[in-house]
Amino acid sequence: MQITIEVEDSVVESLGYERVKDLLSDSATHLEMKVAALEILKELTENDPVQDPDWKAAREQAWEQEKHKYLRTPNP
What is each CA distance from 3 to 18, 28, 43, 45, in whole angstroms? Predict the structure, then answer.
């Protein structure tokens, strides 16, 4: 897809053609990254591991195996 953007002559005169071209290119790249991030967020939201019963069981098993490293036993 190609999009045409009109830029005021005063902006081009002030910054220069190449600088305006670079800024617009950077903006297009930023937009592409934002779209990719939104797609990843959508996938993560749809496949939430916190709601996965297998993940929950694995997390609980790991806690049972490792909790002795983090919990202190009370001294009598």
Answer: 18, 10, 28, 31
